[in-house]
Each structure stands twice: as structure tokens, then as C-alpha cells.
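Re: the 333-residue chain
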Amino acid sequence: MNAKVSFMYSTLAAAIAGISGSALAADEPIQPIRPVQQINLSQVELGKKLYFEPRLSKSGFISCNSCHNLSMGGTDNLKTSIGHNWTQGPINAPTVLNSSLNVAQFWDGRAADLKAQAGGPIANPGEMAASHTLAVEVLSSIPDYVIEFKQVFDTDQITIDEVTQAIAEFEKTLVTPNSRFDRWLLGDKNALNATELAGYNLFKTSGCVACHNGPGVGGNSFQKMGLVEPYKTDNKAEGVAGLTGKDADRFKFKVPTLRNVALTYPYFHDGAAQTLTDAVDTMGRLQLGKKFTPEENAQIVAFLKTLTGEQPTFLIPILPPSNDKTPPPKPFG
């Protein structure tokens, strides 16, 4: 099926369709996550296989899901990820959940979209350590993949362009609607308790929403880490400055989404904050010049936990077997 078709979570879609003007009313800085509207289902199914496909790596062991584990909030819960030959990654792996809402991909925004991002780790020597040529050679040696690429893309020759397109299309489906906070936004005033509502009010009045806004509660701008106080870290990542060479861009990173933030610890680009309590304290001081009391911190944390939405669920794909012509993995080379 090559035509684009609607892909909807019916319960939330009905809720959104049926809301009166008062539901999204109050000019809230955060909007509900909407279900995916347009998707190519045949690309999604192929992309799902490729997302879990370890043979795209040199070792035959690392897949997209290794660092962006869909059983763990779309990340790996490590300060920095583990790459080929136990290489320590340079930066914390951001969640893949709701990544289609981001203004760009990676902490420094060097990939314009999900398709551009998907090809990066495959060829990165510190991550999957293959090459686009090798990845395509592996897929082209597996008859079942050749058939499926032909069916999906109407091509007899697999290229990295189709590989990354399919992965990106699958990743578009990884949205997490229907959080308790979304239900509150949509008119269910019993969805949040008094502590959580107090936390949301603090989140707004303290200025957190200046950066963490929109459906993704972030992900839509780049900001300097350490506006009021300098951020101290041993991590060598320079943010946008690594691309532009401008000192003004040093420590300017894409604002992370706070959707499902209770699942995506540790926090910040260097993974330095292990808990939400630590993250709220640091952000208050460094970005806002505000020292939250323990009670205020706990209220904001309570609010943040309401941002956990419905996690993607599906059958784990069964991958087609290699054959005699498939290049063997090299896990220790």
C-alpha cells in the first residue's frame, strides 16, 4: 500500500473532534498531542523492521532501538549511550518519542528532519560503526528485504534513501497522546489533582513555559544552557557552536521535549541530573535565577509526571534471515 492513509488513535481523535471552544480554551502554552494524521503504512511496517534491525550495524548487535529503546521511553536511561566496541557516546540519547514534533533532530539540530537523522548513527564509528554502503549491501543480500523494498518503493535497487525514509516514517508513529495532562487540557478537570495543578501553575508563572511549550512541551527552539548561572560540566559537547563555530552559540542546545519525562532519565545533554528533582532545581537556578523550595520542586515534579502519555504498542517485528551472501557481522573488530 503506497498511498498515504489516515492513521488515527480513534479514542483521542474523537475527543479532539468533539471538544467545544472552551476545551483548548484558556490560551494554554501547551497543547495536546494529536494523533498522526497522514502516514504511509507500508513504509511504516518496513521501517519498523529496520528500526529493530541490528544488521545495519557493523557488529550485527546494535539497532536504533539499542539507544532509543521503545520499552524505556524511547531512550536508554544512560548518561551517554554505548556504541560499537563499548565506545562511550559523547552525549545523552534524546527520546525518539514525539520526535516528529521537534524543530530539528539531535541536540545541536544538525539534522533537519527524521530522515536526515536516521542515516547518522549507521555510519558513525562510535555508534553503529557501519557505512551506508555496507548497510545497503547487507539488506540487498536478503531476499525478503529485496522483495519488500520493491513492494514499498517500487525499486529494484535499495539505497540509503529508502532505508532512512522507511525508518523516519515508522518514527512518525511514535507519538504518545492521551496523557493525564492532555485529558485535563481537553476538558477533564478531574484528570489532575491539586498538587499537580499547583505544579503546572508554578511551571507557567516561573517562566518554564518560555522554552517548554507547544504540543511537545519543548523541542521547538534552541536555548543557551546556563542563562543566569554558567553550566559546569565535563562533557565536551558545545551545542550549536560545534556547527557554527560561533562562541555565542556555545552551550546552545535544542530544548528537550518534556513529554514522558518521567521515563527519560537521566536529564540534560550530559545526563548529569539523575532525577527530576535534581533537574528542576538546576533549571530553576541556571535558567530562571529561582531557587524552588522543596514543596515547590515537588509540585513541579508532580506536574511533569502527568505528561506521560500512551506508549506505542505493537508486535515486535520478525526479521528475515541472512543468507550465504550476507556480509557477516564483525562484533569485535
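Strands lie at 5-6, 38-39, 222-224, 252-254.
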